[in-house]
Design goal:
The structure holds two protein chains of two kinds.
Chain A (H helix, E strand, L loop, with lengths): L1 E8 L10 E5 L6 E7 L5 E8 L5 H15 L4 E7 L4 H16 L4
Parallel strand pairs in A: 4-5
Antiparallel strand pairs in A: 1-4, 2-3, 3-5
Helix pairs in contact in A: 1-2
Chain B lengths: L5 H14 L6 E2 L4 H8 L5 E4 L5 E2 L1 H8 L9 E7 L3 H9 L2 E8 L4 H9 L4 E5 L2 H8 L7 E9 L5 E2 L7 H9 L4 E9 L15 E4 L5 E2 L12 H18 L3 E4 L3 H16 L9 E3 L7 H5 L5 E3 L8 H6 L16 H10 L3 E4 L3 E2 L5 E2 L12 H4 L11 H10 L13 E5 L16 H9 L15 E4 L2 E4 L6 H10 L5 H4 L3 H9 L3 E2 L21 H7 L14
Parallel strand pairs in B: 1-10, 2-4, 2-7, 4-5, 5-6, 7-9, 9-10, 12-13, 12-15, 13-14, 15-18, 18-19
Antiparallel strand pairs in B: 3-11, 7-8, 16-17, 19-20, 20-21
Helix pairs in contact in B: 1-2, 2-3, 3-4, 8-9, 16-18
Classes of the chains: A alpha+beta, B alpha/beta.
Amino acid sequence: METLSYRHTAARRAAGARPMAIVGVVASGNLEVLVERVLPGSDCQVEISTPVTGFAKVWEAVITDFVERRSPGGLRLSINDGGARADTVSLRLAQAVRLIEEDGR
Amino acid sequence: MTIWNKARAARDARLRAGGRIAKGKIVQAADATALLEAVIEPGDRVCLEGDNQKQADLLARALAAVDVAKVHDLHMVQSGIVLPEHLDLFDSGIAKRLDYAFSGPQSTRIARMLFGGKIELGAVHTYLELFARYFVDLTPNVALIVAVAADRDGNLYTGANTEDTPTVVEATAFKDGVVVAQVNEIVDSLPRVDIPGDRVNFVIKSDKPFYVEPLFTRDPGAITETQILTAMLAIKGIYAPYGIKRLNHGIGFNTAAIELLLPTYGERLGLRGKIATRFALNPHPTLIPAIESGWVEQIHSFGGEVGMEDYIRARSDIYFTGIDGSLRSNRAICQTAGLYACDMFIGSTLQIDLQGNSSTVTTQRIAGFGGAPNMGSDSHGRRHPSAPWLMAGKEADPDGAPALRRGRKLVVQIVETFGDKNVPTFVEKLDAIELADKLKLELAPVMVYADDVTHVVTEAGIANLLLCRSKEEREQAIRGVAGYTDVGRGRDAKMVQQLRERGVVRWPEDLGIDPLDADRSLLAARSIEDLVRWSGGLYAAPSRFRNW
């Protein structure tokens, strides 16, 4: 098990008011992302727990692109990884932000 | 005096020897091995019909059981190395030399036997190439073939899976060879004649139907969002702008996703009738929703597909069928159709290098080529124009004189940047090169050569290699769609940005595609059961794909 943590400053604060959201599942080749609106300003934090070691550079690149493209300011994202590929990680992160930015019901 | 008919006399002697075991042309299954010992001589070239799908399994077992003192050192010339018996022949010394095209299920064992020197390898071919050599320098002395049914005169009915049989028989029967057929049943009257009886010397009724693999059934339930994204990119970024109507799809999940997106995403883009109307293609079950939605005009097939028989019979406007109503497939002709009459091949692969060479071999597995290189190559013998072909030719050579400029077939590799177990698809050096070194092959087994590839599609975008003007641009275009692999992260960001501005590299946002829209709800069918429903119950899914 490897844990990784990345802190970024996003371009802007994520929209919406929903306090938290979860997407994905912890399964082989998949991942679960918990996203919480708990950070000040446009701070963003991504915590990763993964069974696969040796992919730190890939994670770093994926998270950097994600912050640039989706601007998840104010969010803490916790990833419970099941050995997902980078493309799936990107997609789940984007889905998590979309969900938390939806108008609250 | 010169004798000009030695081979015919030798063939007649073999037929007399075999005739002692037969009653007319009919031989009992229990006598199959004795028949083969009678008609095969040491050192013969033998085609033991192993096709992509159907297998002469009884004859394979019979040949594996011959007395090696009588039959040995055979030179096997067949397209598929599929059954364990195909390789057992080399372990026992019955066979020595091998020329073939495809070895999917035996790819690990064949690699081991090649390294161990058990097999003297001629070459690994593409289908058309091996078939061509049947008529020049690899003509079989004996062909052991398989059909659904025979009559007492030896006429054969091959049913939906005709595949390689007409080609194998043509080469053998008309060059003084012996043709032995295994059939599921012997009947008085055949539904149709696929192989005339005067080309068939002996017929054996098998105790059980021959083995046939449902090789082209892709469960929509296993299609991922990433594959859907690659399919959206391909449809919007390639099919639509080139107006691709005549094409071949590979076997993978990415192209299955394209098939299932035509009636949904393709419809929304207004593309029905404008793209994907005519195929050289096996009867893919995943194409059923597009056919039912009126997208497809015509399909010619290399082989059949288990479970598709009744559907095809009921849709004869789409498929090629015989007088009996069932599918007529023909691998050699369909490969030719793919090579000369299709404007695009799109398929997947395991490894792509920095110039765009691709390969499906790894150091542990030699899967062979099959037909992909015939589909995935630009025929220099083509002379008829078409809009996509001319457009691609112009992109490659914008300054050339139009009347003298060759068109280009689109050869599209559609992959995900990482494969199974997070293994990167993009590599600096193909494993095929290491394999060629180890086996001392003169050629590395490259599936599609870089100079034939026109586009690479991944979830990260599309690289249009026709628009690249230098080796460096080509490398950066490929790096530009290689995502988070080492190759992708090693890109020159500034140069890729310039390539995006020129449309050489197009990322999803450049095409107005949001990866978040790549959702399984876009699939016209999300399960095998959905496909059965789309077919009105005509598609009989094989049991291994059923969960209801």
